[in-house]
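Dig into what follows:

_____
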Amino acid sequence: MLKSAIIPRLVIAAPHGQSGKTTVTLGLLGALTGKGIKVQPFKKGPDYIDPSWLSVMARRSCRNLDCYLLDDTTLLQSFARASRDADLAIVEGAMGLYDGVDREGSGSTAQIAKKLKAPVILVLDCRRMTRSGAAVVMGFQHFDPEVNIAGVILNNVARTRHRRMLEDCIRDYCGLPVLGVVPKNSGISIPNRHLGLIPANENEQLTKVFQTATALMMENLDLDAIMELANQAPALEFDDFENPVTVWEDKPTIGIFRDQVFSFYYPENLEALTAAGARLVFIESLKQESLPDVDALIIGGGFPELFGDELSRNRSLLQSLKDRIEQGMPVYAEAGGMVLLGRSITVEGNKYPMTGVLPFDVVLEKKPQGHGYTLLETITPNPLMPVGTLVKGHEFFHTRMLNFDSSKAQFAYRVKRGHGIDGEHDGLLYKNVFASYNYLHGLSTKEWAPRMVALAGWYRKQRLNAGFVVADSMENNMGL
């Protein structure tokens, strides 16, 4: 059913990456939330780390908006539902405003802004620039007339004269309000690692970054003017169809590895599992010595390469995981989760044994081995992804697979876009394990969660029956 809703909203964008839009967005969320305003955060594009920061600052779960992974109907519905009880929605862009996957800007922040009919605030890095700042803003204003650039935030402004020149030029030449001026050398240093920013749940010292950013934006942004711009967004129309909810007589339990090692989960994926009828329990890979009583496992991506020593020393958990898999427990693993299931990981010459279920070793490389959007075609029968299914996703990993024994596991996917394991294939099938470098989104691959829960429910029934014998493959187990 088509609905119309008034949702105050803004997109925070920039001419290029490293302009300061993440710092501005974090501080803005902290400042508005501190005033009692309920803000729903969003991040443009596939990302896990930035959203973890935005979630902390807004005290609400950040959602991803992606034009490659989600069709327009799903994207608008996801945005509207997440914003339903919020006072304001803020979308942090990625890269430059008009940067997408092709020359038309497909998947860009600008495309998201147009679909949402949202005003855009442009964060301008003003280092070594005065009057030229107005030329940059003017170019972005006129490049696509359908994009509503409604205001500017000046970042890295040196002193009063620098500020006055920028403000006067942008006002006189561009006709836009300057909504804030962030001084140069503000003292905010956001740490990085090879996959981007450090997850918010990993380093307590990041609290200082959050506090500094909030104080800085409260002092330097015109919050009232920003709210006024957000309130100017027109009514948004979206299709508010109801997603089915499955009720099980004997609800299956799915364990989720979630801690500082494995933290890459879209909230929509976990919600889809719950809607499909599962009960979720969370497992800490470095602290728990054995698996709890679960009917299936999800092991997401993360940074097992940074915790190789700690993981390898928790042999009791790794052995418990291996035993359950050999007994037929269903497991779905992505990226770092797949690495955990291999024989070993080598980091800077140090080799750490892993679970040893899947027949490969990996080595951590300095450069990404796979990076970007993916399109995969299922080529091997299994109950999660029927043969011929096209799966959209994304990949970003630095590990390279070695010593793969194809006689002990089958490839699940043929790569049509992306790199995967070897440039041609991705996904490994072993007993009831489905592991892949690919990250999927539950609102894009909608059949994944119901099938995963059905597999967990089937396994629960079977293991509670005396004399249960595990078949060799998921396809045989499910009778497909």
Notes: The chain is about 30% helix and 25% strand.
